[in-house]
Amino acid sequence: MKKDADYVFYELTRSICPNCRRVIDAKVLLRDNKVFLRKRCPDCGPFEALVYADAEAYTAHSKFNKPGTIPLAFNSEIHDGSPHDCGLCPDHQQHTCLGIIEVNSSCNMNCPLCFSEASPGFNLTLEEVEQILDNYVRTEGNPEVVQFSGGEPTIHPQIIDFVKAAKARSIPFVMINTNGKRIAKDDRFLEQLNEVRPSLYFQFDGFDSETYRIIRGEPNILEEKLQALDRLAKIGLSVTLVPAIERGVNEHEVGKIINFAIQHPAVRGINFQPAFHAGRHMAHDPMNRITIPDILRMIEAQTAETFKVTDFVPVPCCFPTCNSVTYAFIDGDKITPLPRIVNVYDYLDYITNRVMPDWSIEIKGALEGLWSSSSVAGSQKSADQLAFSCQACGIPESFTVGDIAQHMIMIMLQDFMDPWTFNQKNLMKCCKEFLLPGGKQIPFCAYNTVGYREKARAQLEAAEPERKRARAEGRAYEPRPITFNFDQPAPQNDLRVLVP
Amino acid sequence: MNSEETVKQCCALLYESDFAKMLLGDSFHPGGVKLTERLGTLLRLTPRSRVLDIASGKGTSALFIGERFGCQVLGIDYSKQNVDYANALAESKGFAGRVSFRKGDAERLPLDDASFDAIICECAFCTFPDKPGAAREFARILVPKGRLGLSDLTRGPVLPKELDGVLAWVACIADAQPVVSYENYLVGAGFRIEHTEESNEALLEMVEQMRMKLLGVEILVGLKKLDLPGVDLSSAKQMAQAAQAAVKRGALGYAIICGVNG
Predict the structure, then answer these.
(1) Which residue from B11, B18, B221 is facing A377, i.e. has the nearest CB?
(2) Is residue A13 a contact partner of residue A24, using CB atoms and an 8 Å limit?
């Protein structure tokens, strides 16, 4: 008897072979209300991986896909076809919302989980960073967000100058992606941060020493992290916690991280990321990886439904299934996720094509704008008079508009594509790019999967002796543009898989 | 009437009258001082210029022009309240004598012939009922070869139907003109058009800010921190969305037009 397939063939896309990285066709399959990517490499055989643990949400979210914004300039031409023309090329479907600059490759930790495979190799010069920023301004006009990453960017001797260079180019959100170690101990560095005032994107995977032993190789690091966060609170810098959630390691800590974030004065947001299996990572089972819907369910269960799965909405800027986000207002013990009181979908197209790392700052601006503008509109009403009138409407005496934004927390979930889950359709809408000397901008999930990182790293390291010479001789360093050529086969990925 | 009713009524009055203004900002002026600066540069203002700001509102642009270009500025506004406010502001900022404000009607300026070197008129011309008359007044009070800089809302040849609501809501958009119409008014009054440039981005930014403010209002209402009886939030949202779409496809825009007198 003929049988039906146990899946729905949802769509055809392109992916890469997780082994030899050749570009191959891939099928998106819906099975048991989950989404899988199935593909076959002529040399290396068949592969299948879990993409999204909620097929209903996956298909429903597709409708939030909106037209992208075209950058002012491109840095590469269409030649070999996606994903080998990145730069961005004119075939890309979104501009760069978030530009990431890896300023060094060294780190003061040696995490078993590290997609950038941090180790000594290169330290960008100020000339390189300035050139990268100028190029970013050229393609974006008014770039909104730049993130300095690494390696560990805080151990780069010129990181403060880099932040200044970004601020000098009127980029409103300058972030440093850090493990917090230097911030915990170095008073002078804390003072410098206080002067240049970046936001912090702060590695924070939970509270158990076992979590930190497995993911970070340092079972006792929690104390340092807490110290760093308290010190950041003292100088009033805002922090987004970035937990990597790994199967069988820290799934149980999701709720505790949220409670901690709500209470900690420095923390304005959380960015949960399923542990990213590219670069250096632990062995994993691609059919049983953690996806966004898994973390959403953990959040609902572990916060006693303070946050529910339905409180989260897709982010239409990049591909809608790559991120989910919610915002909540915290008033003492009362926590109100905004989607319960506001029809967020009315505004989703507004946040299209921009990913604000701290949306609450915008909301705060809007709220303050309401007051200051109405205080001078038409009549002589002063802000005080208006505030008084609104007190009459039931605003508590101590309450100011700024409080609302101060008491807002963002919870975002972000799932990067690894060589197993790589989907070219998502990639082409990616809005988070690595910015390189010479101007190339490479989408996050191409940089870490297709072979760009290895090629860039080799060139960045090859230039290090010349950088050192320039530094020693006290002369300006002439940046060398990073270029890519995929004619030669990429080095094979190191497959660490539990279940073949 | 119980006290709760009184409070609600008071708030209703406040917001019915001010809701739109609250969303639009203290003056409907896309681009802010950045665009004012652009206008000043195009008008080639110097410390020796005598500048007239027509519909000067709260005096923000006049004070900015006075400070940035070091020139003498007179602001004219229809509202005495605005004039008093702006004069007090000029004094407190130490500009008294150089930047001042008077009450007046743009269509019948209480000023001598050929008494100014430059005129700026930001986002106000479209609201004047007698546009040819206003343009003639501009020509009259400018010296020969004096420059006029308008910045104003523009629209495509046909105004889309879905903007009807927006127009009723923000009266000043109602008589926005295509760029060429503005040019024709000026040419009709004897100006030579020297420069025209679009600044739709500034308008888009402003509409986006409006939508953000609406979100702020909705949050406050949802948290029960604010009571807005009589304000129809959902149609306000729809109108803002329609306005944004119109700007994006070029049905509504913003432009700077500079003309030379005579």
Answers:
(1) B18
(2) no
